[in-house]
């Protein structure tokens, strides 16, 4: 079966982004967050390429995601920790849990312990043990590889960054952890104080640019491509698509693409906010993006015909601003109908 949509995925850009982030991490090791199926690109394909480049620290959310990476033979850290129903998977050697509650710590001890990581809450109030719990000895005797915390506002110039960093730094030497890790992609750009021993970029590996400091450093990795199902002419006064939100003010050449919000090409790209790119021409979306169909103006591309492929404009910072979605959502929403095509 020939897939009707393609994601063109640039291996060289992925690896270059990881190397750039590793360099910005200074003496700290640079890992990779490949949760949510490698932010939609395909976790095993991403992790294999980064492991070949030298990445040794991979983060997923669940044991199901860890299991999907087992063929790589590179144990992964599981950010959601260990539920009762995960204990068998967690003891099977495909990875270790990132423990974030006293109950998880107790469960891990009862299961015989072994290598684990630990998440500390330094103010995000999402996951993590408190510094007080550490002080009370909750972690005593555990075999902790990496002590972690997570920044709430790393892509902003917020006083919270420094507060979280200082709270985390105050735990140095208090847990027996071999390493400490705080920074996500944007956190890496906050500077050497935030790198500790290991950084954990996700978004920027995949071409996302969370903050100005990473613009010009990070290369795009992902280009969605769709196929033209029909080319037609709208006469002046004609409308197109649901709710007839676009009315042609002159004769307009139109191509109907086989992609829509069910593929993660969100409705926010409607009404010219999104576009296809062809030979340097911008071909704007006309009217509403539908579930499986999107109309684009093709006056500027007279040669495009039924069956031709076009690339969508998916420069992440701009596409996020235009569509009202985050760069994270633009990546993780990319649907199952895409063939994920890696090139070198
Ligand atoms: C997702 C995640 C990351 C990566 O964050 P980005 O903003 O995508 O770089 C790092 N650490 C933890 C704990 C995460 O959940």
Automatic annotation (TrEMBL):
Signal peptide range in chain numbering: none
Protein EC: 5.1.1.1
Lyase is among the record's keywords: no
Keyword terms, alphabetized: Isomerase, Pyridoxal phosphate
Residues in coiled coil: none
InterPro entries given in the database record: Ala_racemase (IPR000821), Ala_racemase/Decarboxylase_C (IPR009006), Ala_racemase_C (IPR011079), Ala_racemase_N (IPR001608), Ala_racemase_pyridoxalP-BS (IPR020622), PLP-binding_barrel (IPR029066)
CDD domains per UniProt: PLPDE_III_AR
Keyword Isomerase: yes
Occurrences of domain Alanine racemase C-terminal (ranges): 221-343
One annotated GO molecular function: alanine racemase activity
SMART domains per record: Ala_racemase_C
Family: Belongs to the alanine racemase family.
Catalysed transformations (reactions): L-alanine = D-alanine
Gene assigned in the entry: alr
Cofactor(s) recorded in Swiss-Prot or TrEMBL: pyridoxal 5'-phosphate
Source organism of the structure: Sphingomonas immobilis
Transmembrane segments: none
Name by which UniProt lists this protein: alanine racemase
NCBIfam families: alr
């Amino acid at each position: 079966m020939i897939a009707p949509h393609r994601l063109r995925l640039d291996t060289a850009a992925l690896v270059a982004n990881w190397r750039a982030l590793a360099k910005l991490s200074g003496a700290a090791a640079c890992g990779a967050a490949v949760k949510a199926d490698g932010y939609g690109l395909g976790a095993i394909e991403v992790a294999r390429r980064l492991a070949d480049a030298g990445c040794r620290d991979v983060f997923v959310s669940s044991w199901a995601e860890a299991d999907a990476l087992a063929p790589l033979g590179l144990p992964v850290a599981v950010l959601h920790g260990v539920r009762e129903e995960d204990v068998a998977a967690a003891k099977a050697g495909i990875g270790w849990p990132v423990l974030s509650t006293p109950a998880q710590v107790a469960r891990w001890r009862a299961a015989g312990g072994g290598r684990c990581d630990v998440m500390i809450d330094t103010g995000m109030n999402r996951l993590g043990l408190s510094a007080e719990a550490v002080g009370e000895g909750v972690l005593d005797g555990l075999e902790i590889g990496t002590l972690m915390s997570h920044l709430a506002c790393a892509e902003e110039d917020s006083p919270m960054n420094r507060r979280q960093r200082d709270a985390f730094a105050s735990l140095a030497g208090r847990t027996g952890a071999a390493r400490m890790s705080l920074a996500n992609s944007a956190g890496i750009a906050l500077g050497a104080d935030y790198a500790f021993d290991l950084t954990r970029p996700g978004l920027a590996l995949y071409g996302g640019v969370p903050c100005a400091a990473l613009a010009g450093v990070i290369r795009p990795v992902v280009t969605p491509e769709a196929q033209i199902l029909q080319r037609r002419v709208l006469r002046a006064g004609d409308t197109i698509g649901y709710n007839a939100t676009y009315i042609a003010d002159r004769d307009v050449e139109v191509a109907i693409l086989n992609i829509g919000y069910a593929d993660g090409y969100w409705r926010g790209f409607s009404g010219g906010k999104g576009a296809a790119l062809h030979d340097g021409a911008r071909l704007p979306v006309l009217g509403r993006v539908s579930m499986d169909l999107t109309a684009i103006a093709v006056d500027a591309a007279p040669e495009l015909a039924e069956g031709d492929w076009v690339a969508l404009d998916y420069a992440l910072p701009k596409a996020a601003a235009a569509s009202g979605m985050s760069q994270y959502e633009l990546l993780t929403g990319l649907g199952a109908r895409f063939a994920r095509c890696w090139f070198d």
